[in-house]
Amino acid sequence: MKDDFELGFWAWFATDEHRLVSDACHGMKALDFLHLPSSVQSKQMNCCPECDIEGLMTEVEDFRRCVESSFPTLESQLAEVLNECHQLPALALKWNEVEMFTDPTWEPVRKAASKALQIAGWHNLRSHVEEQLRKSARSAADKGVANTK
Description:
Elements: H1 5-14, H2 18-35, H3 38-44, H4 53-67, H5 72-86, H6 107-120, H7 122-148
Helix pairs in contact: 2-4, 2-6, 2-7, 4-5, 5-6
């Protein structure tokens, strides 16, 4: 049971561990992008800060930190994703190149991210994570509106 991340995620949710839930949600969404085929990644890239590789790596690192003592298998795989990202050559990181994701050096990143998502139980958590992120965004927007009044 120690390494059952899905169960741990729901325990965090049930005990109002908002930071852990948020870090996990953002980390899984970053992994979801990193595991996609190059054709989909290229279409989804908007050249916005949220799509920046360093931003994605930060979200994966935050996720890794929140699982490190409780979920060692997932933590190890997240470390592997980060390692593969750090191995990318500069040419594979040219964000002004729409086809940057077709560089073959991205393939180990995709494989590592896919494995991390599998370990995390993404297939069962995906819809809940996306709903949680929508709620967080609405809450932040509502707070922003309330602060302007």
